[in-house]
Amino acid sequence: MSYGRPLSFNPDEAVHAAMQLFWAKGYAGTSLQDLLQAMGLSKSSFYQAFDSKQALFARCFDCYCRWRSARMRASLNQSSSAWEFIENVFWAVANGAESELERRGCLLMNTASEFGQRDRVVVELVSSGMVCFEAVFIEAVQQAQTEGSIACDRDPHAIASFLVSSMSGLRTMVKAGMRHSQLSNIVKNILYSLN
After folding, report:
1. Which domain of life is it from (predicted)?
2. What is the pTM of this model?
3. Residue 93: CATH number of its domain
């Protein structure tokens, strides 16, 4: 069986470029021509490396979730306390309302909104992405309970699910153009609910 010529480009860089495009324009809004231009590929190279637009999207989605969760975990490890980490996550989203990156929303929630329940593969991607983010928050909540900033009788898994949905919702509100004062009030209420 012939596997074609060796790849003459960096697949990780190409995936990153495609991820940025999907994140900004959505799956349906991103054409094959958009992808070829952003990735610097010919159509034959694209199909040799990624098989299809859907397969590339799945790879980009996984890349996004691993990137976001790795940033969160690094922030948790560098914070002086788990509570500081939780605060920083939410204030960073609210304070980033003027950032082009934050105005894109969350690729995970953008994807969930775009596809709904129509595509089983996408539903599984969204579910696995939620698990990645929840895992970091579970660790943070358990650490906060040890430190005494969150009550020990509360379920870390339930709180982590709440934090993921709150973070995703906040990113969606940033994308919708909500004012910083409104975002600040939401953050204060999210944090207040943990006490």
Report:
1. Bacteria
2. 0.85
3. 1.10.357.10
